[in-house]
Design goal:
Blueprint (H helix, E strand, L loop, with lengths): L1 E4 L5 E5 L3 E3 L2 E3 L5 H8 L7 E7 L4 E7 L7 E7 L1 E8 L10 E7 L5 E4 L3 E7 L4 E7 L8 E3 L27 H4 L4 H6 L9
Antiparallel strand pairs: 1-2, 2-10, 3-4, 5-12, 6-11, 6-13, 7-10, 7-12, 8-9, 8-11
Length: 195
């Protein structure tokens, strides 16, 4: 497994070695040893989530109260998504910055994002399946979001899908109504950076 830190402290890309033959392929989607060597600590998995999205669906940008926060190890098992990590930690040297990784059923990459980071994605193909290993369980009172279309974030969401067809953006009402990063900061919703 190859591991690369992303531009935001606390986020990594994991690229598995894929072994293929005429039967298909095999890969290790997660190994504790590779993860711990890169990140410096194990991940506790309290919940595993799966979403299935049509092309053009944008989910996020979501984050949880810290503590305890919710770290995530994310992969796309079917289809393709542009996966985005946003630094929402007030006081972080990269506060408000984003990094993105293409997760798909070809390269089979995964990303890890630590507690306090925001997460979202745009599906690039119909029926894209994203699976998240989460360090804590769902707690609706501690879950928040910021507007994925916030001009202050300037996320370059894709306009065409994997097949080259134009994408029509589709967001949940909750994500569409989410505050901008500045509004969330002013309301005291964002986590605080701890070096």
């Amino acid at each position: 497994m190859q591991v690369r830190p992303l531009a935001i402290d606390g986020a990594w890309e994991f690229v598995p070695t894929i072994h293929g033959d005429d039967r298909g392929s095999f890969l290790e989607a997660f190994t504790a040893a590779s993860f711990e060597e890169a990140v410096g600590h194990p991940i506790t998995v309290a919940q595993v989530n799966t979403s299935v999205s049509a092309a053009g669906v944008i989910r996020g940008i979501h984050f949880a109260d810290v503590p305890p926060g919710q770290a995530k190890y994310v992969t796309c098992t079917v289809g393709a998504v542009l996966d985005v990590v946003v630094d929402l930690r007030v006081g972080s040297p990269t506060f408000g910055e984003c990094d993105a990784v293409l997760l798909d059923d070809i390269d089979r990459k995964a990303i890890y994002l630590a507690e306090g980071l925001g997460h979202g994605f745009c599906a690039l193909a119909d029926d894209s399946v994203v699976t998240y290993l989460c360090s804590t369980g769902y707690n609706p009172a501690a879950e928040h979001g910021v507007d994925p279309l916030d001009p202050g974030l300037a996320i370059d969401w894709p306009s065409v899908g994997r097949d080259g067809a134009p994408l029509t953006r589709l967001l949940s009402d909750k994500d569409r109504a989410a505050p901008s990063v500045l509004e969330a900061k002013e309301r005291g919703l964002l986590p605080v950076y701890q070096d």
